[in-house]
From TrEMBL:
Residues 138-436 form the Aminoacyl-transfer RNA synthetases class-II family profile domain. Belongs to the class-II aminoacyl-tRNA synthetase family. Keywords: Aminoacyl-tRNA synthetase, ATP-binding, Cytoplasm, Ligase, Nucleotide-binding, Protein biosynthesis. GO terms for cellular component: cytoplasm. The keyword ATP-binding applies. One of its GO terms (biological process) is asparaginyl-tRNA aminoacylation. It is found in: Cytoplasm. It comes from Lepraria neglecta. This is asparagine--tRNA ligase.
Length: 444
């Protein structure tokens, strides 16, 4: 099958051989005796030129956007000033309509106009995905995923091995409030909030590991950066220090961006979507939680109760984003207090009030990564379960990690949709996945 890609076309002497292309009508423009149809096939755009009798058929006169077509003709190279995509056009000598797209009141552009209300756009996400911006984000997403895998496999030493942990679990990790619970053969089970605990158990036999898996959070509030199901990229590294973790993390993110942007199509898509995107410089800024509290007080940014921030406060989404936007570069926010972080996080030996934890904050989005060193001492972990009100019974397999050759280790989870919202300059993470799941939305 000849596609709209370059590889099938011979441009010698400016003209190519006769090819067959298939695609859907992206746009069309009729002039006297000439019909320009821009065909779209998921790989690219191709301008097709119909002349003479070909412009007078019933199909040509009733053409609608998104109609699928097959066309035959000769490929011509054209000067850049004619603004044909990829400076070429197909001079059509034969075509067929394969599936006519509904027009008038039922046309796609009527069902999902750019000014449609958000509800309509979410109901019609399958049609919105046909749009240039939405499909561009999906292509950047694919390139980013590819880059992550490449980085884990070849750009870091020692490399990380990909594993696929289960999504149905019987442990809560990131707090009971956001658990999706279901009946598992008569027993209580949950959709996983994170694969972290499973990754930790892989270290002894597989070395450093990573996974790309869905995580589920029953978030009650509607925010622009919370999904009920998101793609979680998590890694776990053995025999490391907290500083190693931060260095690894900034290397991974920088390399992923470098690799993704080294592909010209991805680079164009990113900068078309987000013209002001700035490739972050290493090392990222490091800021301790306690210093962030001082910073917020100095800048008169209040906590959720409208009071000045105090040590021990959770830094809420709005305050976090304000701070990140003002500083306007990636920040590693580190050393959060024990009380506001998860039970498994290792305490800082030099200040037992805080943990060896990190959130990576990006302008426009805020937190895109959360990570930490893990408690590797058996007794300490048992005490942490008690403190958290967790029944250790269900965690025996996690606890065993401390019983059979424990090690200093740590890792992190990165929300792919948040990473993309930052890179592609999207207002919400809902634009960064195929079919977003959020409060009260599970269709289409
Ligand atoms: O900060 P979180 O909750 O950390 C963990 O789950 C750790 N167990 C990860 C680890 O260390 N392996 O989540 C990690 C990241 C966040 O920084 C955010 O990017 C993303 O997951 N995230 C969400 N993304 C979209 N919608 C949500 N509801 C999200 N909750 C977390
Ligand atoms: Mg977090």
């Amino acid at each position: 099958r000849k596609g709209t890609s370059d590889k099938d076309v011979d441009y010698s002497e400016g003209r190519g051989s006769r090819v067959r292309v298939t695609g859907r009508v992206h746009r069309f423009r009729a002039q006297k005796d000439v019909l320009f149809i821009t065909l779209q096939d998921g790989y690219g755009l191709l301008q097709c030129v119909l002349t003479g009798d070909l412009t007078k058929t019933y199909d040509a006169l009733t053409l609608t956007q998104e109609t699928s077509m097959e066309m035959w003709g000769e490929m011509w190279e054209v000067p850049p000033k004619q603004h044909a995509p990829d400076d070429r056009e197909l001079h059509v000598d034969y075509y067929e309509v394969i599936g006519k797209a509904a027009g008038d009141k039922d046309a796609i552009t009527t069902r999902v106009a750019p000014d449609s209300d958000p509800q309509t756009l979410y109901d019609n996400r399958h049609l919105v995905l046909r749009g240039e911006n939405s499909s561009s984000v999906m292509k950047v997403r694919a390139a980013t995923l590819r880059a992550f895998r490449q980085v884990y496999e070849s750009e870091i030493t020692p490399s990380c091995l990909e594993v696929t942990p289960p999504c149905m679990v019987q442990t809560q990790v990131e707090g009971g409030a956001t658990l999706f619970e279901f009946n598992y053969y008569g027993e209580k089970a949950y959709l996983t909030q994170t694969s972290q605990l499973y990754l930790e158990t892989c270290l002894p036999s597989l070395g450093n590991v990573f996974c790309v898996a869905p995580s589920f959070r029953a978030e009650k509030s509607l925010t622009r950066r919370h999904l009920s199901e998101y793609t979680h990229i998590e890694a776990e590294l053995d025999f490391i220090t907290f500083d190693d973790l931060l260095t690894h993390l900034e290397l991974v993110m920088s390399k992923v961006i470098e690799i993704a942007l080294s592909d010209p199509k991805t680079k164009k898509a990113v900068y078309d979507l987000n013209p002001t995107f700035q490739v972050p410089e290493r090392p990222f800024m490091r800021m301790r939680y306690a210093d962030a509290i001082d910073w917020l007080r100095k800048h008169d940014i209040k906590n959720e109760e409208g009071q000045p921030h105090e040590f021990g406060d959770d830094i809420a989404e709005a305050a976090e984003r304000k701070m990140t936007d003002i500083i306007n570069r990636p920040i590693f926010l580190t050393h959060f207090p024990v009380a506001i972080k998860a039970f498994y996080m290792k305490k800082d030996p030099e200040d037992l009030r805080v943990t060896e934890s990190v959130d990576c904050l990006m302008p426009g989005v805020g937190e895109i990564v959360g990570g930490s060193m893990r408690m590797d001492d058996y007794e300490e972990l048992m005490a942490a379960y008690v403190r958290e009100g967790i029944d250790p019974k269900h965690y025996y397999w996690y606890t065993d990690q401390r019983k059979y050759g424990t090690s200093p280790h740590g890792g992190y989870g990165l929300g792919l949709e948040r990473f993309l919202a930052w890179m592609c300059g999207r207002y919400t993470v809902r634009e960064c996945c195929l079919y977003p799941r959020f409060t009260n939305r599970c269709t289409p």
